[in-house]
Structure formats: C-alpha cells, structure tokens
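Researcher: We're teaching a course module on how sequence relates to structure. For the next exercise, students receive a sequence and then see the predicted structure as tokens, so they can try to spot secondary structure elements on their own. Here is the exercise chain.
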Amino acid sequence: MPVYEFTALDSSGKKTRGILDADSQTAARQKIRAQGNYPVEIKETVARKKTQKAATLSFHIGKKITAQEIHVSTRQLATLLEAGIPLIQALDGLVEQTNNRYLKKTIAQIKDAVNEGNSLTAALEEHPRLFSKIYINMVRAGEASGSLDVVLERLAEFGENQAALRSRVKAALLYPIFMAFVGIAVLVLLITFIVPSITSVFEGTSQALPLPTIILIATSSLLQQYWWLFLLVITGTLFAITAFLRRPKGKRMWDTCKLSLPGLRDLNIKIASARFGRTLASLLSSGVSLTASLQIVENIVNNSVLAEVIEQAEEELEKGKSLSQIFKASDYFPPMLVQMIAVGEQSGALEKMLEKAADSYEKEVEAKILALTSMIEPVMILVMGVAVSFIVISILLPIFEMNQLIR
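Model: And here is the predicted structure for the students to work with:
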C-alpha cells in the first residue's frame, strides 16, 4: 500500500503535516477529510529500492533523526511485539507514536515494504544510513529464530549503553577543550591588541630593548600583519592531515601510532576491547554465528590493525583453532579478555563472559579518561601561566631599565 505525505488545514485554519497509507491519492484525500482536515498537498513517498543506492544514501542528509530516536523506536517496537501484536500492526502503531516526521516517514516505508511481503530485515536494508550492519544482522537472526521481540529489546539496550558511554566520554573531554579554546583566544587577544598599545611607548626611546621584549613585539607585529597567513597555514595543514588520514596508508599509519604510543596504547586497546566484547556478545546472543559476528565486529573496532587481526581470526577459526588461542598470539588483545574468552568457550557461556569483559573495560576506559582530563587541566594552567608570565616580563623589563637610567 502506497505511503503519502500530506499538508492539510485543520478546522481552525492551522497548517498540519503528516503521513498515511492509502490505496490511492483519492483514498488518502478521503482519509484526511474524515479526520476533519482540508487537504492542501498530497505527495506519494516512493519506497527506496536496493538498485536506488544513491537515493537511499542521500535520503537523510540534512534531516535530523538522532540515534536516541532510533533506540526509543526499537524499544517501542519490541514492547508491541512482546504484547502479541502482529508486525504490521506494531509498525503502524509505531508510526502513530513517532513525533519526528522524517523517522515517521521511514517507518511507514518499512511497514509498506513488509506489507508487500518483504522481511523486516530486507525493509531495513533499504535505509543503510539509519540502520547499521549490526542492527540488520541481529534483526535477521531474530526473525530466523522467532525471537524478534527479544532481539529488538537487546538492540535498544545495546544502543543506549553505547550512547551513554560516548556521552560520558564527551562530557569528560568538554571542559579541557573549552579551556584550551579560551586560553588560546586570550593569548591571541593579548598579543594582537593589548601588547601593541603598551609596547608603543618604547618606540620613541633610543634604549636597546631586552631580547624577550623584541621577541614579543615581533610576534605581535607578525600576528597583526599576517594573521590571515597563519590562519591559512593552520587550515591547510589540518586539511592535508585529514586528507592523508582518510587514505588507507594514512589510516593504517595513524592506527599503528594509536597502538604504539606509550600514553595512548593502553587506552585505545581497552576502548577497542570494550567495543569488541559488547558487540560480539550482542550478536552471539541474538543467534548470529561466530564467523558472521566477527565479520561485523571487524568493521566497528575503528582500527585497521585490529581489523586485520580479527580477519585473520576468521580464517584460523575455519582451520579448527579456538578464538582464545588466536587472540593469545596477538599483542593487541589484553590477557584478561583472552582468559575470559577461553573460560566462555570451555563453559559454553561465551556471550556472558564477553559482556563481563566489556563492562570491566568500559569502567576502566571511563576512569582512565577522567584521570587524563584531570592531568590536562593543570598542564594547561601551567602553559597559560608561562605564556602570560613571558608577556608580563617582556613588558616590565624595559620599564625597570628605564627607571634605573633615570636614577
């Protein structure tokens, strides 16, 4: 059944928008009138096909559908299915409960595809910008096992946990970033506007200026005259670094550095281990095979070096080796994770062991980031203090020398 997006006027003349499904545009117009509204514009929303990849990929550009809205809709759909409501009716109810018009349109398209005889998995695959490979594969496993409601509940919980961790990490980093921005802005303001007005009194004297004062005046003059050049160089450098890191060679070099630098190695490995354990546990609990799960996890660890290790693990599994044996030979997976995987393989509770490991590493990551941010603050204060002290000393030195000459 086609899905229509409409604009109408209610009894008070207020403009309203919405979507509905009907056999034809005439039937859609009748439905709108039956609701007590006057239809102004009715437009059919064409469901995206797999062959229309470009249209699908650009569908939500500039349209706001947040991850949180996806998690909430997933949980609502799980609740409706758990109550025994058929999938079509559950999706129809979800359309009515959703406030975001873009998400409402997407769910209506999914319902339309399912109504035509497609599986929910096939309908979700039409919207790759909204539903990740993890999401789609877990839904596929839920449909195959007949436990779609359980899988959707687990998906919502998984997404909410990941979003909560990201939110806590961002909150911890927000204050140091803000302080760095304010500190740089204050220094630029001092050197560009305040310092020239103070140091201008030294220009009329024949006194030789101290070296720090000469450096300060030269720096101030350069920023005043060539600020656009500094801005251009910084922008160009950032653009060049970003372009290089997007290339496979640059990404691999950066990923290798992240796993090699003394201060960041442990943190990055724990972040990857937490993401690996949580995702793999969710996929295995949903009925996805170990090999297929590893293929999905390979794409979400966000590190090409670790992705290669996981890809090699897929090949080694086919030769009869256990996952713990494979990861034990690698330097990139912590011993505790390897041991918990081994215990899970022996006891047949691999999913539970992976979840426990993920819980542990997520707590360690959060504590580590909080510790690092608490170290950043005094370092930033020290740097700011040194910079301001240099400016003050550079200004005061010639004044002291002038006083000595007067005496």
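Model: If you want an answer key for the exercise: The first strand starts at residue 3 and ends at 9. DSSP finds 16 helices and three strands in the chain.
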